[in-house]
Amino acid sequence: MLLTVQGVQDPTRCLASVVEVMQAVLSIPALLWEEGKESQWTALLPEWFVTSMTRYTPQEIWAMPDQWHFESWVATLCAREWKWWSSASDPDWFQINVCLIGMPYNIGPLFYIVHACCDKGYTLTTEEQ
Fold first, then answer.
1. C-alpha closest to that of 49 among 64, 34, 75, 68
2. Which of 108, 112, 117, 126 could form a disulfide bond with 17, CB atoms 3.0-4.6 angstroms apart?
């Protein structure tokens, strides 16, 4: 699946932030990839990213359609059926190519990483390959 993000002021910087979060995710020890270990992820992910979710109350989260609750984000990411394959950027866009490894898959946690890293007003499209 190819994700294309357009309409951000600095696509290279935005992609670098997305990569920063994904590198932190990939550095998380295997024994923490279990339900109930979500709170231990906070020390391993960038603080600004964790705060992008934990600063809101549950009522505020429900009122914002693109917002995730931290523990729900971690639990969904733990059950993902995709792997990061590659990425690229251009002055007008950046792309992330993910390999789908099972069905059903939930790409929502990656969409949220983009949401937290990019200026508002971007457009994200997907194309299955």
1. 68
2. 117
- Token readout for 21 is 């979060």
DSSP 100: E
What is the average pLDDT across 88-93?
95
pLDDT value of position 38: 86
| Contact partners, residue 23, CB within 8 Å, separation at least 6 | none
Average pLDDT over the chain reads 93
Instruction: Please check whether residue 114 is in contact with residue 3, taking contact to mean a CB–CB distance below 8 angstroms.
Output: yes
Contact 94, 88 (CB under 8 A): yes
Distance of alpha carbon 43 from alpha carbon 5, whole angstroms: 28
pLDDT digits (tens, 9 = 90+) for 54-65: 999 999 999 998
Q: What is the DSSP string of 75-91?
A: HHHHT--EEEEEEEEET
pLDDT of res. 45: 96
pTM: 0.91
Bridge partners of 122?
none
